[in-house]
Design brief:
heterodimer, A: about 110 residues, 7-stranded mixed β-sheet, 4-stranded antiparallel β-sheet, about 55% strand, B: 6-stranded mixed β-sheet, 5-stranded antiparallel β-sheet, 11 strands, globular
Chain lengths: ~110, ~110
C-alpha cells in the first residue's frame, strides 16, 4: 500500500464513451503525475501538477483531459479514445521537486 | 531530449545467481537517478542515487552511480524467485522553478527460475 489510490482498477470503454480515472493521495504530497505504460515502451509522462497547477503537458492529445481540484486528487477525463490508447495508466505523487515518486496500482484501460 | 537506456531488456537466471542490471542516461541538469521494482502493477521504490561512487544497499540489492560515465548498476545477489519483476531506472533532472519531470527507461524484465 503506497498511499496512492486509483479507481477504477479496470475499465473497458468504446471509442465514443466518456469516462474518468481518479487518483487520490493523502500523503501530504504537492506534486501529482499521470503516466501511461504500454507494452514494451517506457513509462510515458503525460501530465504533472504542482500545487494544483499544471506544470507539464507532454504533448498529450486533447482526448485526454486532466483535472486537479486540490493537491490530494487528480482526474483524467477520457473521451473519443482510440484502441491504441489501451494501456495501464499510473498515477503518482511526490512531496516536492526531489525524492521518489509514490505510485498507485494503476487503471488498466481497454478501448474497443 | 532526455534519454534513459536499460540493458539487458530481459534476463533469465536460476535461484542463487547474482545479476547486474545496467542503466545509462543522457540528461541535462542531472539531479538524481532512481531504481524501481514493478511486479504486478505499482512500481515500488528501491534506491535514489545522487552522488558518484557511493553504494546504496538494501539486503541483497545494491546500486551505485557513475556520474562521469553516466550510468548506474543495480546488483542483486543470491537471487530468489520473488525477485522476478521488471526493474525500472528513472532519471530526474532539475531546471529550477516547478519542473518535476522523471524520465524512465524501458525496464529490465528479470525472471528467476527455481
Amino acid at each position: 500500500e503506497t498511499g496512492v489510490t486509483q479507481t477504477p482498477r479496470h475499465l473497458v470503454m468504446g471509442m465514443t464513451n466518456k469516462k474518468s480515472l481518479k487518483c487520490e493521495q493523502h500523503l501530504g504530497h504537492n506534486a501529482m503525475y499521470w503516466y501511461k505504460q504500454s507494452a514494451k515502451k517506457p513509462l510515458e509522462l503525460m501530465f504533472v501538477y504542482n500545487f494544483k497547477e499544471q506544470t507539464e503537458n507532454n504533448s498529450v492529445p486533447s482526448r485526454f483531459s486532466p483535472e486537479c481540484p486540490n493537491s490530494s486528487h487528480l482526474f483524467l477525463h477520457l473521451h473519443t479514445l482510440q484502441p491504441e490508447d489501451s494501456a495501464l495508466y499510473l498515477c503518482a505523487s511526490r512531496i516536492g521537486a526531489t525524492g521518489e515518486l509514490f505510485f498507485g496500482e494503476g487503471s488498466r484501460l481497454t478501448v474497443l | 531530449e532526455d534519454k534513459v537506456v536499460q540493458s539487458p531488456l530481459s534476463l533469465v537466471v536460476h535461484e542463487g545467481d547474482t545479476v547486474t542490471l545496467n542503466c545509462s542516461y543522457e540528461v541535462t541538469n542531472f539531479r538524481s537517478l532512481l531504481w524501481y521494482k514493478q511486479e504486478k502493477k505499482a512500481p515500488t521504490f528501491l534506491f535514489m542515487l545522487t552522488s558518484s561512487g557511493i553504494e546504496k544497499k538494501s539486503g541483497r540489492l545494491s546500486s551505485i552511480l557513475d556520474k562521469k560515465e553516466l550510468f548506474s548498476i543495480l546488483n542483486i545477489t543470491a537471487t530468489q524467485t520473488g525477485d522476478s519483476a521488471v526493474y525500472l531506472c528513472a532519471v530526474d533532472r532539475g531546471s529550477g522553478g516547478s519542473n518535476y519531470k522523471l524520465t524512465f527507461g524501458k525496464g529490465t524484465l528479470l525472471t528467476v527460475n527455481p
